[in-house]
Amino acid sequence: MAEAMLKAMGLEKIIEVNKNRIEYKIDNLTICLDTIENLGCFVEIESQDDNDIDKDKLKKIMDKLNIKESQIMHKGYITMLLIKNGSPYSKYIVN
Hints:
Elements: H1 2-8, E1 19-26, E2 29-36, E3 40-47, H2 55-64, H3 77-84
Antiparallel strand pairs: 1-2, 2-3
């Protein structure tokens, strides 16, 4: 229903992101295992309080999950999908 309303307003769908997510919690951190259709599998580690991130704990979790600093992505799923799909909207993406 909401999508029909947006189309009726003349808005154009740019992209649809289909995501499966499993979440785990440890203290104030949430570890998300995401599978993004047509993109792949990702791990997101989020803090409930961005002002109080325990960087040592974060590093330990990354080490246990064998995540290297060089593997950290700084683009969101929408941005990565727009680029991957060669969308004309990808020209508006700023690195």
